Structures are given as C-alpha cells and as structure tokens.
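F.,

This is the one I mentioned.
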C-alpha cells in the first residue's frame, strides 16, 4: 500500500482539523511547500493535498501552492477541494496535479463527474466519499446527507467512478485508529481501488489496514500522526508493506 502524507491548506498554511471542524484547526507550517518538502525528504513518494479554502468557497483557492509543490518536489500529487466545474478540474491538473479528487461536485453537479472522466480518464479522476455517522457529507464536511456509504459507492460505480478516497470524518484528526470492520465493508462495495483516510494514530493502525490483505485498498492518507511525530514516513511505509 501507498502512504500519502496529507497537506491540508487553510488560509495559506498547512493545518489539520478535528472531525472536519474548521474552527478546530492547528497550524503545523505556515508554508505548505515546506511541509510537503519535509515529507518528501523523509522518503514520501506521493502527496495528498487538500484545498480547504476551496472546499468551503466552492472553487480552488490554493492552486499556486499546488503549482509550487508539484513543480519543485518531483513526486505525484493528488489534489482535492473546491473542484466543482470542468474548468476547476482542468486548472488543477494544469497546475501539476497527477490526479484530482472530486467531492461535493460528484454528487451535486449533474454531468461533471462523467465529463471529467471522459476528458481526463479514470486514472486521473478520483471521487471522495466522506462519511459522518454512516452517511455521506458534502461541502467541505459541513453538510451531512441521508445517503449511506454503500448506496453512494454503488451509484458512483454505475457512473464510471470506481477509484475512491474514503474518509471517516468522525475519526479524522482523533488519532484513535480506523474501524477495520467498516473498512472491510467499504472495500467489498468498491470495484476499483480505495484510499483510506481518518484517524490514523499509530503504526498498529497501519499494520491493521495492511493485515486486511485487500488488494483494492491502494493506500492510506496520514496527516496529524506524522505532523506530531508519532512515527516517521519510513516506519509508516514499512508498516503498510508488512
């Protein structure tokens, strides 16, 4: 599995939230490029960048940070947050994203997902399924729908989106580990690949995900635990390879 260190950008800084709460933020680096560089220098081969300002506003805000990170560090960057139009998707890819992550727009903008997949290919377009209390959330985790996880995955599959990022918002930033049974259920609903995010706090959490032995589980996004030095990038990758 692949380790994706997270760089979440809010008000121009690299931050982490707790349970998706924009008011419960902690700034870890005032320069997102510096944060990203530290992970790459530590051995990270991929990066996960989220434009939290864009997620709130509905359009990308931090493309210049993306351009700097992708242009200077030489590793693939996946980017999400505020990508709610075909132009926004094209702009993010043009700024250097190896692939983009659609969230709210995949559920609310009719035809956008299909158009993005058609124009850029499945390998460059992921969909984020963010879940709170078993139901999908949208608009930067600020709105919770009545749609269940499995129902939305089935719907996305029918629309051609089989490569997903799954986040348990209730666990995000809590460092309490993933619900492995939940992950197992989600994996069984996915037809392509899945990247997990939410609550990783120790190496045992990564080892637990690896122990599921699910080939569909492509990687894991880790943020707070790395920033707070609970383990290193090499230790995390080794745990995922175990």
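My design for it:
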């Amino acid at each position: 599995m692949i380790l994706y260190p997270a760089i979440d950008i809010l008000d121009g800084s690299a931050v982490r939230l707790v349970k998706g709460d924009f008011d419960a933020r902690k700034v870890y680096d005032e320069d997102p490029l510096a944060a990203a560089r530290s992970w790459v220098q530590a051995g990270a081969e991929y990066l996960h960048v989220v434009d939290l300002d864009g997620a709130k506003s509905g359009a990308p805000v931090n493309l210049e940070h993306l351009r700097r990170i992708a242009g200077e560090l030489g590793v693939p960057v996946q980017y999400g947050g505020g990508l709610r139009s075909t132009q926004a998707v094209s702009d993010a890819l043009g700024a250097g994203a190896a692939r983009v992550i659609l969230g709210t727009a995949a559920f609310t903008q009719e035809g956008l997902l299909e158009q993005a997949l058609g124009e850029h290919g499945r390998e460059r377009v992921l969909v984020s399924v963010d879940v709170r209390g078993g139901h999908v959330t949208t608009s930067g985790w600020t709105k919770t729908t009545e749609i269940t996880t499995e129902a939305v995955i089935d719907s996305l599959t029918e629309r051609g989106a089989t490569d997903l990022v799954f986040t348990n918002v209730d666990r995000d930033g809590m460092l309490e580990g993933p619900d492995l049974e939940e992950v197992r259920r989600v994996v069984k609903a996915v037809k392509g690949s899945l990247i997990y995010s939410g609550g990783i706090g120790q190496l045992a959490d990564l080892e637990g995900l690896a122990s599921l032995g699910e080939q569909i589980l492509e990687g894991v996004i880790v943020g707070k635990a790395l920033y707070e030095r609970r383990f290193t990038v090499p230790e995390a990758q080794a745990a995922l390879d175990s």
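The two ends are 9 Å apart (CA to CA).

Talk soon.
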